[in-house]
Design a protein that fits this description.
mainly alpha, binds NADPH dihydro-nicotinamide-adenine-dinucleotide phosphate, 63% helix
Length: 475
């Protein structure tokens, strides 16, 4: 009922917006209400091709030693038909279905049933019950932050099994990689479809739902802002932060174990990928409370983009370097390895410090010191849908004075380091840096569009004070 009223309201807002020309009214600063042709075309493209892209990459490794061109050349030359490739692809197995179900159930259990205890003994770690940001409808959600604990328990069990219990081989993930892909797809589609139905018929908060009237856009970008089951099972936090990201480091460990099994050693490139990506994952869990204030949680609605993306895209494409190194065990010379390590650590430092500076600035409402000085900022205001006026600040010093998204720049440097660890023989491991460049540039533009509608002329003052987005003096 509430969802139907919200749908009607959405149509009225759309009508009002058309009357006001292109001027977006404040209080509508969440996801877009209207779908332009470019967004629609991109969404249709992704819905159709993203699952095929993932399949193509994984199949290329399985059947063509990670060459992205050979399958195409084979098909074009008529040496193979699509059916030949498909017939050689491992199918869904009951073993993979069992492993995957156990995995997801175990992560749900860790998320729902064990309140965080890490914050009680880890100095500086923020866990337990935390609040998210104000939603466009003016709601502040509470979250149980226990991701670090889930990650630690899972990894302790993994190492305990590998060292003592031997219930399963540490290569289990690699050995079932394609059958597990089918399971991940089933979950990804099931959860996105459920979220769509839930948004229409029993939303958690009807005022934070968005209906554009376009089925594909709503399916992809989501209707509900913070869908939940019960008080605590938050879809966005769980799917963004648990089955895929906890698995990321286990997947890499499984790839390292496969190298050991096949070649009797683990290469320095594999160790570098495990370490650098391990730091990134651990950072995510250490800062999970901060993550509540990032775009994924603060601004994106929950649809296929997050649901399927977290289940399939992230675990399968973010781990391509490790997979590649199983097929191509690259041993780097010392200079190359040290260069990769330095680039990765510098990128991580910039990424973390930039995010930390904003977090500190926002938490203390500007009453802190950045690089030994009081931060500089621009005062700004915005309104939620109910007309309540809020005040905020945009920092213009520290890394935030260098560029408006210097955290993305650090992230991109780290991403490049993972790829460079794989040498220069194939393009496949470089997919990650290409993808991250597109993702973060698009995200930057999307975020700025949203901030401009949210803060209006205050945002213009900010962009005048900090004119560059990613690279000072260039972009
Ligand atoms: P940010 O952490 O940069 O958050 C952007 C928001 O911060 C804006 O919407 C605005 O929100 C606020 N803000 C912008 N400028 C300022 C300023 N000068 N002072 C204070 N607040 C400001 O973006 P993300 O949430 O996208 O990214 C967080 C991190 O996660 C990044 O480091 C990114 O690289 C990483 N990331 C990684 C991904 C991956 O797949 N590996 C994917 C996406 C992100 P408000 O409305 O509150 O003002």
């Amino acid at each position: 009922m509430a969802a139907h009223q919200e749908k009607k309201l959405a149509e009225e807002r759309k009508h009002q917006n058309m009357q006001n020309g292109t001027k977006a009214s404040q209080g509508q600063w969440g996801r877009a209400w209207e779908v332009d042709w470019f967004s629609l075309a991109s969404i249709l493209f992704l819905l159709m091709f993203a699952p095929l892209i993932v399949y193509y990459f994984i199949m290329s490794c399985d059947q063509y030693q990670c060459s992205l061109t050979d399958p195409l050349l084979d098909l074009l030359a008529g040496n193979k038909h699509l059916s030949d490739i498909w017939n050689r692809t491992p199918t869904l197995t009951s073993r993979a279905a069992g492993i995957y179900s156990l995995w997801v159930i175990f992560q749900v259990f860790l998320y729902m049933s064990i309140p965080d205890f890490c914050h009680k003994f880890l100095p500086g770690y923020v866990g337990g019950i935390q609040e998210g940001a104000v939603t466009p409808a003016g709601v502040v959600n509470k979250y149980e932050i226990n991701g670090l604990q889930a990650w630690i328990i899972t990894h302790v069990l993994w190492f305990a099994n590998a060292s003592w219990f031997h219930f399963f081989s540490p290569t289990i993930i690699f050995d079932n990689w394609i059958p597990l892909l089918w399971c991940a797809n089933i979950l990804g589609y099931a959860v996105s479809t459920f979220a769509m139905i839930k948004g229409h018929f029993f939303p958690t908060n009807a005022k934070d739902c968005k209906f554009t009237g376009n089925f594909f856009y709503d399916y992809m970008m989501g209707i509900e802002f913070n869908p939940r089951i019960g008080k605590w099972f938050d879809f966005k936090l769980f799917f963004n932060g648990r089955p895929g990201i906890v698995a990321w480091t286990l997947i890499n460990l499984s790839f390292a174990a496969k190298q050991q099994e096949l070649y009797g050693e683990v290469t320095n490139s594999m160790i570098l990928v495990n370490i650098l990506q391990g730091i990134y994952v651990l950072d995510f869990f250490w800062n999970e409370a901060w993550y509540l204030k990032t775009i994924d949680i603060c601004h994106d609605h929950f649809g296929w983009y997050l649901g399927w993306g977290d289940c399939v895209w992230l675990p399968y494409l973010y781990t391509l370097q490790g997979l590649y190194l199983v097929y191509h065990p690259v041993q780097l010379c010392t200079t190359h390895a040290v260069g990769v390590l330095m680039l990765g650590l510098l990128g991580y430092y910039i990424f973390r410090m930039t995010n930390h500076q904003k977090d500190l600035f926002r938490r203390t409402n500007g009453n802190c010191r950045i690089w030994g000085k009081k931060p500089e900022y621009i005062e700004c205001s915005y309104m939620s849908v109910d007309g309540t006026k809020y005040y905020s600040k945009l920092m213009t010093s520290g890394f935030w004075g260098w560029a408006r998204h210097f955290n993305y720049t650090g992230d991109l440097m780290g991403s490049l380091a993972y790829c460079l660890a794989c040498g220069f023989e194939h393009i496949l491991p470089y997919f990650y840096i290409i993808y991250m460049t597109i993702l973060l540039t698009h995200r930057c533009i999307r975020d700025e569009h949203r901030c401009c509608s949210k803060y209006g002329k205050d945002w213009k003052r900010y962009t005048a004070a900090v004119p560059y987005r990613l690279l000072p003096g260039i972009f």
